[in-house]
């Protein structure tokens, strides 16, 4: 018998091109709520995938209740009683709650294999009542709110007699009241002997529920502390405390006139009351946690996801942006977050990708001038220094950094004033990263204004002139380059300024 | 919106008015997503009420409607439609479609009719079995194309529809199999009774009982819904999507094969163009009965009522002096209308979910 | 910063050139012709070949815009019904007193309107797949034709109208000439204009196309409207050849059209395919039908052949897509390793 129900020793995991976990340790006591924290990309989701058997580790060992285990697949983890709760992943919206809970292990009569609905729903209802649900198991899953669906997910885990439940960002989409309900349920589970690994960005979750907290940073294990022995500030430092060793070639140039202003921008369910300004020659960093609404705001400005409230001003004049073409005409360009799905046509050559946004330029009343097109594509791809041999190389064959360069070249083909870059260096190797940063500096020197959405603290601090922090769809802080620190940013991203429930923008 | 709707329909005012009235009731049905289980019962109740209402209206217009003879004919036609609609429902639940049903009915009907013509002393039950086997073969092939080869269902069924229809013509040599070539036993399939109930209706009841059990009380039956509701989750959960998809098309084929024999017996004739375009009736019956085009949901009770309603529409149109040539346009409009209403309902629900986010 | 010289001129790759799908089609076309001429000694005569084309070119007109529809990644099964409706309305208008040229214009307008309706519905209700929408409109359009003409036929067209489908200009059938013109127009539209490039983009990745500022909705509406228009053109020629019309004309034309398009190299999932392949497959399938007709194969067997053809064409196209998808994943992994 061991002290720990789960122990992870020196586990490492590498995916092609990136080391996701580097010598990570972790242990879980029976009947404890143990928080796991770290920035985006710190390694938390890989960690979960390893403990739930989705991926095998490359190095290191796992121990369950003192015994060494090898998880060959998710079923092995399930048999041991390890269950993970994500949001909406395995839900069947058209089936009833009871069915969702028991799918895969329905209660059937021996022999005829007939489904015993009565028993199933009774068992399901029992679980639901224990969890304090206000709905019964015959309700259709798709009609429940996110909070209620989560309760069903928890019930599902319990129905498999889970001993360890991993909750991945369970409070991310909940209202205050629903969050308190979830706290109650979580504590109830703990009291009944279940051990819980609780992943969250919300410091209040951690301090309310957890007894210990482990921090991961940059794929490495930083440390484990008792929650009542570490302060919020110290926790934040643990999560971000790194020296900014990378140099960022951000030249100091004069910030010019106002280029873009948004006032009170809102879209139901995505963001509300968003206001900020962008000036010529300025890089505005837009940061916050995943789900804060940053990309949605940018896509709104670009016309993909038109806003419902508020106003947009370009160089002082009020404008309406209803579609991307209009945005580009107004001088707004957007580098999408998901470059493969949103930014490129992978089967096409680099050249055709670059010219896609501005086909009118290489055409005469609709008639394509292919030579002109090829020339401009060549010029632009050389300008961004893409590592390719010809403009006919398929975009899908390039590395992440080069794909990004192609999309930048595409942006440069239009006459822009404002460039929005959504996670420009995500998944990009170091060399390409600095190349992209250099490009950004050059652009602002030429008078462009850049909005840079980023989750990487060093990048945000190193490249931005001002930083806008968002949380749950609202702007929580606007910081100046000189006075901004990682701690301030993270605090604004994670702690809500007010205790009041967030009002809707209707 | 209303003007657009009017322009699209080009129906005479009366039917349009009825459709508008039906619109409210149909909106609930076509939504395919009931809020609570009570809601589902409400929808079926609404359909039932509508059927009664419309029957009264028809009766007022033409007293011949509620005669035993007419109702007998109506119900027997609806029975065949109801049996086939079960199969179509399962296909639509898995997010697919099967346009070859009419051709499968024709092919199996023709083969069994010819066999009976050649062997008049064959027991009619063998004809039923033969027809069903033909249907299973047809459905099996389509299931293979959709599940294994991953051909999009509309194209797979469109292509094979042609093949089966062509085979029907070839086998028949371009000739009809007429009533006097069929044994009395064969023709009696449709006119005889079992336990006092007409055989067709009896078979329909048996089919519904079997499928009610299958869909609601067996794992495999529930897996069909799971695959339609969230195919990616289903795969992760360990459900064999390929097997399920293959199965639903084979079931559709089996039912089509069975109904082929029933059809040919009822109409006492087997032709090359038997059941031409019949699959549209089935899609309409399913959609009106609350089966969602997005997959994952559908109830047998809805489908029965949908088939009944469509059977009434088909039966009543000539009675109230609307020419049969209006049938197609009305049918197409019903499908389009119901499906569009579905979209609006879903958009409203999505909006509500967004508003709940409290941002 | 190092500077690379990037090649902008496409280099001629002999191997890739000969590995194209269209060559296989050409091969099949040659085979069909050989078989046909062995059946009938008069076959390989230019005049009789051109006459042969008149028997199948009426279907060919819709194939051109359907290629666009499928490259977009959608499908349109209502084209045959649009042919029927346009034809019926034309006949009824003419017999109702309108001058023939006016009736013909009405025919084109009806077809265009139906196509426009399809396009608008598809764009306004993005949640519904084009398959479901065009299945319903297919029934509605033909249904309206039935309402108008019931099971009667209508015709009695002026004598000159016959010339459209049966006549010649400078020894070449009018149908062939008109088709050639349209084929060239559509080919240019697809391969040489921004519109065509946009269609390919949308078929490959609709999201990236939106993000690049393409007016996706507008393009879709135009493509479906074109399909409606060309259906009306088909109606003009078909009715001319038949001399009269009924609501059940042009049955199964959509299957022919889709089969020809897929056989011609357009993938069912969109984004690939060329007009030249479509044109070759029009002649391939058309002459195949003609040859089968020479040996008195009846229309029903033809149905089976076309149905099987459709299924096999999609099967092969699926396999091709899978193989190229795999090929190119491998290339990607290699490249990434090189970079690191």
Structural class of chain C: mainly alpha
Largest sheet of chain B: 2 strands, antiparallel
Largest interface: pair, residues per side? B-C, 47 and 46 residues
In the residues of chain B, how many domains can be counted? 1
Q: Report the uncertain regions of chain B.
A: 1-40
Q: How many extended strands of chain C?
A: 2
Q: Which percent range describes the beta-strand content of chain C?
A: under 5%
Radius of gyration of chain C: 22 Å
For the record, the CATH architecture of chain B stands as: Orthogonal Bundle
Which class of chain B in CATH terms?
Mainly Alpha
Low-confidence parts of chain C, pLDDT < 50 over ≥5 residues?
A: 328-340
What's the end-to-end separation of chain C, in Å? 19 Å
- Average pLDDT level of chain C: 86
Spatially, the strands of the biggest sheet of chain C line up as 1-2
Amino-to-carboxy terminus distance of chain B: 31 Å
- Assign an overall shape of chain C: globular
- Sheet with the most strands of chain C? 2 strands, antiparallel
Helicity of chain B, as a percent range:
over 70%
Could you outline the blueprint of secondary structure elements for this entry?
The complex is a heterotrimer of chains A (506), B (359) and C (340).
Chain A: E1 6-15, E2 18-28, E3 33-37, H1 44-51, E4 59-64, E5 67-69, H2 74-80, E6 82-85, H3 97-102, H4 117-130, H5 146-159, E7 164-168, H6 176-191, E8 195-199, H7 203-209, E9 212-217, E10 220-226, H8 232-240, E11 258-267, E12 271-279, E13 283-288, H9 294-302, E14 309-314, E15 317-319, H10 324-329, E16 332-335, H11 339-343, H12 350-355, E17 363-364, E18 367-368, H13 370-383, H14 400-412, E19 418-422, H15 430-445, E20 449-453, H16 457-463, E21 466-471, E22 474-480, H17 486-494
Parallel strand pairs in A: 3-8, 3-9, 6-7, 7-8, 13-20, 13-21, 16-19, 19-20
Antiparallel strand pairs in A: 1-2, 1-4, 4-5, 9-10, 11-12, 11-14, 14-15, 17-18, 21-22
Chain B: H1 2-9, H2 13-31, H3 37-61, H4 68-93, H5 101-118, H6 124-148, H7 153-172, H8 184-191, E1 193-194, E2 197-198, H9 199-217, H10 219-229, H11 231-237, H12 241-267, H13 279-288, H14 300-319, H15 327-356
Antiparallel strand pairs in B: 1-2
Chain C: H1 14-18, H2 21-39, H3 46-72, H4 79-95, H5 100-124, H6 130-149, H7 159-166, E1 168-169, E2 172-173, H8 174-192, H9 194-204, H10 206-211, H11 216-242, H12 253-263, H13 275-294, H14 299-339
Antiparallel strand pairs in C: 1-2
